Fold this protein.
Amino acid sequence: MNRRDFIVRSAAGLAVAAAGPIALSCGAKAQKSETTMKPELKISFQEGIPPGETLSEKFDYMERHGVTGFEPWGGGLADRVPEIKSALEGRNIEVSAICAGFDGFILAEEPQVKAAFDRTMREIIAAAGQLGSTGVIMVPAFNGQTPCKPHTQATRDNLVEELAKLGDFAVENGTTVILEPLMRGEAFYLRQVADAASICRDAANIGVKCMGDFWHMTWEETSDYGAFFSAGEHLQHVHIASRANRIMPGEDGPSDNYTDGFRALQELGYDKWVSFECGTRGEREETVTAALELIRRQWEEA
Ligand code: MG
C-alpha cells in the first residue's frame, strides 16, 4: 500500500467509523466517500488568459467555466485596487496571487536598486493584502539583473534574513511573499522547488512561502511529485502551462501530463490555486476551454 492509498483508506475508514453501523454495512457509501475526499482543484487565470477585452468580460468567462482565482500583475497594483475590487464584487472569484511587478531585486549589489525593490515590493504587498491575495510572487534575481550578489552561503544567509523581514511586513498586511524558482536560462540563482522550500524553512516565517511552475519544473525537476511533495506546508501557489512551448495545457500534446504533480498536491491537501501562466497558438476560446477540460480530467485521474 502506498502513502496515498494509506491516507485515502485511513480517512475513508474514519468516515465510515464516524457514520456508524449503517455505513459499515454499505460498501457503496464507503466507495463514494473515497471519491469525494479528493481535494478541489481550484483554477486561477492570469489576466491575459481568458477571452474578453474588459475585466468584467474576462470574469464573466471565468465564472461560466468555474475558474475561481484571478492573478493580476503587480505593477501599478495599488492604483488598481478599487477597479479590481469593484469588478470582483458579487462574483465567485477571488484574487489568487499577485505576479511580481516590483522594481529592482532583492539580491541587488547596488543599494539604490535594492531600495527600489524594498519600496515597490512593499507597495505591492500592501495592495495584495487589500485584495485578499494569498501572496506576492517574487524571483530573487533574474540572470539579466546585475550586479547581483554572488551565489554563496553569505548571500543565501542574507536572502533568508531579508525575506524574514519581508515576511513580517506581509503578515502585517494579511498576505505572504512567494518565492518562484525558474529554469536556469532565466534565473540560475533559484531553480528548484525544494530549494525554495528550504529557504522558506530557514526564514522560519509564516509570511515566506514558495511555489512551483510546471513549465519551469519541466526543465529543472527530476520528479513533479517529489518537487511539490518536498515543499509541503511552504507551498502557496502553482503555475501551469504546456510543457514544451509554454502555451495552453494540451496544445503540446501527450507531453502535457500533470498527474504526477497533481497526485502530490492531492496528498498534501493543497487548497490554494493552480494558475494559468501561458500563451496560446490557437483560438483562445477553444484552447482555454480544452485546457480546462484536460487538467480537470488529469486531476481526477491523479
Ligand atoms: Mg511562473
About this structure: The longest helix spans residues 111-130.
